[in-house]
Amino acid sequence: MARAHLLKYDGGAQIVEVSQAYVHDFANPLHRFNGEIPWALGLAPLPDGMEYADMVKAGLDSTEYLQAAGKSPEAITVEIRKRGGQEWGVQWVRYVVGHPHQGDAPLDVPIKLPGSTQMVARYEVFNADEATELFDIYYKTGDIPTSYSLRPVDGYTVDGAIFDLRDGTPRMVYAGMTN
Hints:
Number of domains: 1
Order of helices and strands: EEHEHEEEEEHEEE
Structural class: alpha+beta
Radius of gyration: 16 Å
Oligomer: single chain
Shape: globular
Helix content: 10-25%
């Protein structure tokens, strides 16, 4: 039996638990992105033995996911949050996904969203077909191909602390739960 996942639309405005997803479940919303509604799609595996209602009751949110946001089917940013980040003292890291490239590039491409504008590098801009492929691979494998670049943005700890990782030096932005 396939592992259940959550599909989150427009920043969680709608959340659907799916036990079987098909490529069109990702392609349809991604091809309709317009920067307002729809503007975001997320995919997160449910923890083993849990349903979405169990997560809500336990006060849990998705610790691992793939998400996309955009102003059009031709201007989409993709992010992945996954385990790792021990070098920064965190257990999960949220990365901006990019196409394979050489060297650094300026964050000079604006992706307009309902409440903000996300600045990304040109190699971090995806179209709906490329994003659909990443979602389908992530759904089937729990990760994306290692050929894609990952730019760290935030780090998260088990106790809920959040660290800004954008310049390579972790800076705590939220202390999490304290005893």
